[in-house]
Amino acid sequence: MDTVGFQKSRFDEIKVQMTDFLKTVGFGKKDIDFCPISGLSGVGVQTAYSGDAAWYDGPTLLELFENIKIPERTALRNRPLRASVSEFSEDTKGLTVRIRLECGTVHPGIKDAVFYRTDGNFVQHLPSSFYL
Predict the structure, then answer these.
(1) Are 105 and 89 within one domain?
(2) Do the domain assignments include residue 3?
(3) Closest residue by Cα to residue 68 from 39, 44, 36, 33
(4) What's the CA gap between 41 and 90, in Å, rounded?
(5) Which of 53, 76, 93, 126 would bridge 6 by S-S if both were Cys, CB 3.0 to 4.6 A apart?
(6) Which domain does 114 fall in, by range?
């Protein structure tokens, strides 16, 4: 918004174009919020709007972030483990598999069936970055 001097007409034009695009990819109008921000001075990110942006009386970007409703994910964690293998390698310590977890939980000691084998495998180690 810095390059156009926080013009309300330009903000409204961008808002209409982005709303139309986001609706085509599955977002509802009630799920979309807009706020003008300055990349140079930071106006609208944390500080209140003033000067050229005084026409906007809505929340700042951080206020919008604080009001995001986090979806309930416990139903996915309670389901059986479902993961897709993205990478695997074998060395002297055994087979190492990198997975993308779709649902369920993984922790050291859990027994699961991988690929077409039904006898199961044990998770022996999870890297510390897994818990981030």
Answers:
(1) yes
(2) no
(3) 33
(4) 52
(5) 53
(6) 74-131
* Range with lowest mean pLDDT among 26-30, 79-83, 104-108, 116-120: 116-120
Asked if the model's pLDDT at residue 128 lies above 60, the reply is no
62 with 78, same domain: the answer is no
Where are any strands of DSSP class E within 1-125? 82-91, 94-103, 111-112, 121-122
Question: Are residue 60 and residue 19 in the same domain, yes or no?
Answer: yes
94 located within any domain: yes
Determine, yes or no, domain membership for 29.
yes
Quote the CA–CA distance of 82 and 13 in Å, as a whole number: 43
Give the model's pLDDT for residue 16: 92
User: What is the pLDDT at residue 132?
Assistant: 42
Q: Which residues pair with 115 in a beta bridge?
A: none
**17 & 51 share domain:** yes
Predicted pLDDT of residue 80: 75
Go through 60-90 and write b for each residue having 16 or more CB atoms within 10 A of its CB, e for each that does not. beeeeeeeeeeeeeeeeeeeebebeeeeeee
**Residue 43 backbone phi and psi in degrees, to 5:** -65, 130
Of the chain, the percentage scoring pLDDT greater than 90 comes to 9
- Provide the domain count of the chain: 2
pTM (2 d.p.): 0.52
